[in-house]
Amino acid sequence: MFTKEILLKNKVPFLRFKKKDTLFREDQIAVNLYYLLEGEIKIYNIDSEGKEFLISTVSENMCLGEPPFLLGERYPANAIIVSDTAKVFCFNEELFQKFMIDHPEVLIEFTKEIARKAYDKTMKLKSIVHLNPHERILNYLKIHKRGLGLEADEKTLIDVTRKEMANSTGLAVETVIRTVKKMEREQHLELINHKIYY
C-alpha cells in the first residue's frame, strides 16, 4: 500500500523499536496511525485473570490502529514489538489527511485494507461464538493463510504456536493440541516437525 519512498518524500516520521517495546496500550487515546515497514508486532488484550488473548500479529507493510485513529477513540488493545527490531512510520491526523488527499490511489487501497480486516475480524468472532473447536481452528488457519496472501487451496506451513492459536480462537491450549492431532488423523491437515501444514 505505502512505499518507503513515498512516506519519506512526504516527511512521515520514522521510528525504530526493539523487541518488547510497546507501540501503544489499551485505553490510550489513538492520536497516531502506524505503518509497520519492517518487523512484527503483536496486538493483544489481557483479561481480568491475566490471560492473554491474541487479536492479531502484524507483519511488514501493514497498518495498525486504523479504526480508533480515524474515529478519535482509544486503542482497544495493546501492541508490542515481537521481532528483534521494528521500523514504523507514524501519522498524526493532520499529516494523514494531507497525505490521503494528495494520494487518492493510496486512499482506495487503504479503504480496501480496512474492509478486509473488518471482514476477517467478523469471521473470527463468528467462529468463536458459533463454531466447535475443529471449525474454529479451520477458520483460524484460513484467515491466517489469507493474511499471508495465499489462496484457500494453497498449502503452507503455519508458523504459529499452539498457544497463539489458543489465544486467537478462545480455546484452551490443551483443546487446540487434541483437536489438531484429531484433525491430522482425519487428514484435514498435516503435521511436519510439529508444525501445521495446511
Main pleated-sheet profile? 4 strands, antiparallel
Global structural class: alpha+beta
Strand order of the largest sheet: 1-8-3-6
Mean pLDDT: 92
Description:
The chain starts with a helix and ends with a strand. With 198 residues, it is α+β, with helices and mostly antiparallel strands. The strands form 3 sheets. Strands 1-8-3-6 form a 4-stranded antiparallel beta sheet. The chain has 7 helices and 11 strands. A hairpin with a 2-residue loop joins β10 and β11.
Per-chain topology:
Layout: H1 4-9, E1 14-18, E2 22-24, E3 33-38, E4 41-46, E5 52-58, E6 62-64, H2 66-71, E7 78-81, E8 85-91, H3 93-102, H4 104-130, H5 133-147, E9 157-158, H6 162-169, H7 173-185, E10 190-192, E11 195-197
Antiparallel strand pairs: 1-8, 2-7, 3-6, 3-8, 4-5, 4-7, 9-11, 10-11
Helix pairs in contact: 4-5, 6-7
Task: Considering the chains and any ligands shown, give keywords for the structure.
four-stranded antiparallel β-sheet; 198 residues; 7 helices; alpha+beta; 11 strands
Structure at a glance:
With 198 residues, the protein is α+β, with helices and mostly antiparallel strands. The chain has helices at 4-9, 66-71, 93-102, 104-130, 133-147, 162-169, 173-185; strands at residues 14-18, 22-24, 33-38, 41-46, 52-58, 62-64, 78-81, 85-91, 157-158, 190-192, 195-197.
